[in-house]
Amino acid sequence: MAFEIEIVKGDITRADTDAVVNAANNHLWMGSGVAGAIKLAGGKSIEEQAIAKGPIFPGDAIFTGAGTLRFKAIIHAAVMGQDLRTSDKLIRQATVSSLNVAEQLGLGSVAFPAFGTGVGGFPMSACAFLMVHTVDAYQPLAKSLKRVQFCLFDEYGERLFREALTKLRR
User: Fold this and answer.
1) In total, how many domains does the chain have?
2) For position 33, which CATH number holds?
3) Rounded to whole angstroms, what are the CA distances from 133 to 38, 81, 124, 161?
């Protein structure tokens, strides 16, 4: 079953999806960046639930409640280990693991940030290409997902993800 892929600029904690994905480390503590924004907006209970389920292997994902946020779940994808470094392999694995969790939960929609481009130091253009292609390749496996959104914090990220999606569709 095919789903819609959307690119938007905005605050992921306000996404119009059933769940959002947190770009996490494998111990699941929520420091800065996307994780910090989710914890600030939804409360410390999100981090407490996540840490209780960790540590996990880099590339894996788990879910927690959403605290005071309106989402059905927060999906925590371990894009990096304790060294805070990521790779194309980990970004691909974490993206697929997140989609698998969304499907296991029967979610209709999920919003992703740009994995590993903050503290992980991964180039935004490479991330956009990898994540858009990985999500697109997942479509034949989708049963519940109707919409996958990439929610980018700034215009630069939004433009690169939009370009990656446009090239894919050619």
Assistant:
1) 1
2) 3.40.220.10
3) 26, 23, 14, 10
- The token pair at 152 is 């980018």
Domain that holds residue 131: 4-169
- Local confidence pLDDT in tens for the 170 residues of the chain: 689 999 999 999 999 999 999 999 999 999 888 999 999 999 999 999 999 999 999 999 999 999 999 999 999 999 998 787 899 999 999 999 999 999 999 999 999 999 999 888 899 999 999 999 999 999 999 999 999 999 999 999 999 999 999 999 88
Determine the Cα–Cα distance for residues 130 and 102; give it in Å rounded to an integer: 19
Dist CA 53 CA 49 (whole Å): 7
Q: What is the pTM of this model?
A: 0.96
